[in-house]
Amino acid sequence: MKKKVRSKLMSMALVFTMAAGLLSGCGGNNVVEADKNTITIWHDKEDAVAEVLQKKLEELEPDVHVVLEKKSDLTESLKMIGSDPKAAPDMYFFAHDKIGVYAEMGILAPITDIIPKEELNVYMDNTLEAATYKGEIYQLPVYYETLLFMYNRRYMKDDEVPKTTEELYLDLLNRCPDIQEHITLKEVASFLQVTPETISRIRHKLNKCIRCKLEK
After folding, report:
1. To 10 degrees, what angle do helices 196-215 and 185-192 make?
2. Angstrom distance (rounded) from CA 36 to CA 84
C-alpha cells in the first residue's frame, strides 16, 4: 500500500519545480496503520514555494495526506537522524548536487524502487545524468536551469569562453591563482552562480586528476 501511495505522489511531483529523493531508511515502513496513507516530506524551500506545493499536494486528499516540514538546514537534519526509520521522513526535496553526499550517508533509495526505469525515458538524458550517482538514479528530475554566460571581448576571445562550469572555475583560477586564499568556497560558488557542492565536486575531481598524474 505504501509503495502505491508513493507512486501516486511521485506522479503528482512532476509539476513541482524541485527534485525529490527517497530515504532508504523508509520512515514510512514503521508508521502505524492509521498513518499508512500519510507521507512526510522534508524541504528547505522558500515559504512561497512551499505554499504552492502544499496546495497541489492537497489534491491527493483523501487518498494521500502529505505533511511538509521545513528544515533550515536539511543536510544537518538528515545527519542527525541518520537512517533511523522512526525519525526519518518518507521523502525530501533537494538539489541534485547533494546526491553523492546523501547516497554515501546511506539515506537514499533509488527512485527506480518505485518507478520502472523505462518510464523515465521521457526525461532528457542530461537531467537523468544529473540525478544519477554510481549508476543509480536517486531523484525524479522535474526541471533544469540554463545559465547565461556573458563576456567582454576586450578581455576574452571567443575561443576562450568556458563551455562548462568546470572550465569556468579553471578560468577563474588561472586569472586569480590565489583567490581561494582570500574567499571561501561558498563565496566562489556564489560568484560563479553555482552551489558550493558543485565547486566541491569540481575540486575533488581536479585533485584526483592531479594525484593520478603524480602517481604516473
Report:
1. 110
2. 18
